[in-house]
Specification:
Order of helices and strands: HHEEHEEEHEHEHHEHEHEHEHEH
Number of strands: 12
Radius of gyration: 23 Å
Strand content: 15-25%
Shape: elongated
Number of helices: 12
CATH architecture of the largest domain: Alpha-Beta Barrel
Largest sheet: 6 strands, parallel
Number of domains: 2
CATH topology of the largest domain: TIM Barrel
Structural class: alpha/beta
Oligomer: single chain
């Protein structure tokens, strides 16, 4: 997954404005003058899958054109507690002003990537794939979904404009599954898949007969999912969703579904504990 650089810079600039505002009062008040060269090293305090390294690079590039960054890991790497993952060399004020924003992105994104990797490993040996949802932090969907990819998962639709997923409210307002699917197929580009959310096997059969390309099995028990796989018989893509966690995800995968979507990957990730240590950098002038 390639992040649009303009979109990324927009996200980062907003985050920096939010944190720095009119200026870093503490840094301006405490640091001596003239500006001091420094080095900031980010390390992880726990084992994790890293995501957000590229975001950290952009943060310091925006703050200072002379900042130099060194990466010790790439997005998707598994690292150990105590490992250094990122270094920035710049004036101390730049590093201190960007510290929290860089850590916030790295900690959240690495938490998402780490959780995703755990789910992916839980279902190894099955053909099912772990996918995300639109249950992301407002304004951070691009980065949340990038982190899922870094963890080995796959992305569901990014927004309402790049896929058709007919859910229960659509079905109610359209007058039923058949009517909703017929209208969707008439309006959608020929290359766009039509997916329908169903809650029982009767709705599944209606969705298939109506011409759906994929069906989301909403909060079905594993026994019902197995029956759904038998009924579908490969005619449609089957996605399992709702109530799926690390304890039951393998059982869900073993039913034979194609996709397993998990909102918890992005709607409530546990951030990874990371820290930045900033130290004065010895220069040629200071050696003299």
């Amino acid at each position: 997954m390639i992040i649009d650089p303009l979109h990324l810079r927009e996200i980062v600039r907003h985050a920096l404005r939010e944190d720095i505002g009119w200026g870093d009062r503490t840094t301006r008040s405490v640091l001596p003058q003239p500006p001091m060269d420094a080095t900031g090293n980010i390390t992880t305090r726990e084992d994790c899958v890293v995501a957000g390294i590229g975001v950290a690079e952009v943060i310091f590039a925006i703050l200072s054109g002379s900042a130099r960054t060194t990466t010790h890991a790439v997005d998707g790497d598994a690292v150990k507690a105590g490992d250094r993952i990122f270094t920035v060399d710049a004036d101390a004020a730049t590093i201190l002003s960007g510290e929290r924003t860089a850590l916030n992105f790295l900690m959240r994104m690495s938490g998402i990537a780490t959780a995703t990797r755990r789910f992916v490993r839980q279902i190894e040996g099955n053909h099912a794939k772990i996918v995300d949802t639109r249950k992301t932090a407002p304004g951070l969907r691009l980065l949340d979904k990038f982190a899922v990819k870094a963890g080995g998962g796959r992305n569901h639709r990014f927004g309402l404009d790049d896929g058709i997923l007919i859910k229960d409210n659509h079905i109610t307002l359209a007058g039923g599954i058949r009517a909703a699917v017929v209208r969707a197929k008439a309006a959608a580009p020929h290359s766009m898949r039509i997916e329908v959310e169903v809650r029982d096997l009767e709705q599944l059969e209606t969705a298939i007969e109506s011409g759906a390309d994929a069906v989301l099995l909403d909060n079905m028990a594993p026994e019902m999912m197995r029956r759904a796989v038998e009924i579908a018989a490969g005619r449609v893509l089957l996605e399992a969703s709702g109530g799926i966690n690390e304890e039951n995800v393998r059982e869900v995968a073993e039913t034979g579904v194609d996709l397993i979507s998990i909102g918890a990957l992005t709607h409530s990730p546990r951030s990874i504990d990371m820290t930045m240590a900033v130290t004065p950098r010895e220069t040629d002038e200071s050696k003299a």
